[in-house]
Amino acid sequence: MSTYLVFGATGNVSRRVAERLAWSGAAVRATSRTPEGAKLPRSVEVITPDLDAPGALDDVDAAFLMWPFHSAEPARPIVDALKRRVRHVVFMTGGGALPGVAPKEQPNPVARWHATVERLIEQSGMEWTVLSPSTFMTNTLWWSDQIKAGDIVRGSFGSLAMTPIHEDDIAAVAVHALTEPGHEGRRYTLTGPEVLPQAEQVRLIGEAIGRPLRWQELTLEQERARLLADPDFPDGFVEELLAGYAKMAAAPLPEVTSAIPDITGAPATTLSAWAAEHAANFGGEQR
Ligand SMILES: NC(=O)c1ccc[n+]([C@@H]2O[C@H](COP(=O)([O-])OP(=O)(O)OC[C@H]3O[C@@H](n4cnc5c(N)ncnc54)[C@H](OP(=O)(O)O)[C@@H]3O)[C@@H](O)[C@H]2O)c1
Asked: Which SUPFAM superfamilies does the entry mention (predicted)?
């Protein structure tokens, strides 16, 4: 039986990929820098992320790769290790990497790293599938402390519209791409089912947890100060986030794609359903 490798398997999406594969009875090998704390299904073999280590890629037919690094530097050794042993890589890209645009022409550093990895994979001789997801619903957990503390979420860009996506829907697509023929050489733009401004996302989370939450708009200066004072938010990401939001706010409204229902046969999950599932994270009761 061939084995599936899942990289970064304690992450938002990779954990779901590893679980879905394991529950289907597939052989799964997953990476974590702390394998003993990974809390994955028992049948999953957990290894460290050193893909050159003896046995790391034995019997691996297809791999799910995401990019947890803050540069493209590890890309070449990782892709080189994979291409020696693995037939097919499903890569979750990010950072707004624009398809068909050279890494150095990409709009921001994060897009440049992701485009670099995409290009290396595409030139490696392996079969590949690229998943390009929209904003994760898990990003709304950035508001969880404010929601636990009161009914107001303060931030800027409240009218900024997004198509938030459930991490498990991305994982479902990844599993189809890993386990079925026909996804090779494809780049899928994955979105959630609705176009939702941030303020509306807050209202829907409130509805799901049974509290009347509302958005309060901050100026950019106030928002910068708030994020820098937040011990859980990485300081180095503040300017990038604000610049990214300003760019998204000036761009045309994002569009919902049909890739999730087309590939999985099930509708993409709504934010209301995701919020009900994650109610405990916002101080509500899990449904
Ligand atoms: N958030 C969004 O809205 C969004 C939207 C589109 C695309 N993306 C892209 O999605 C990716 C992030 O996915 P995610 O949120 O599912 O990941 P995540 O939750 O941040 O988890 C990534 C996992 O990778 C492992 N990891 C971290 N640093 C590592 C390192 N240096 N070496 C090896 N493993 C490492 C960690 O596991 P261990 O600690 O167990 O090793 C971690 O659990 C990024 O490429 C991002 O650009 C995000």
From this structure: NAD(P)-binding Rossmann-fold domains
Architecture of the domain delimited by 3-133: 3-Layer(aba) Sandwich (3.40)
CA–centroid distance, residue 2 to ligand 1 (Å):
25
CA–CA dist 203, 214 (Å, integer): 6
Distance CA 261, CA 193 (A): 10
Cα(282) to ligand 1 centroid in Å equals 22
Q: Is the CB of 237 under 6 A from ligand 1?
A: no
Of 28, 29, 24, 30, which is closest to residue 11 (Cα–Cα)? 30
pLDDT digit string (tens) for 216-254? 999 999 999 999 998 888 898 899 889 989 988 999 999
Give the Å distance between the CA of 15 and the centre of ligand 1: 10
- Average pLDDT over every residue of 265-270: 98
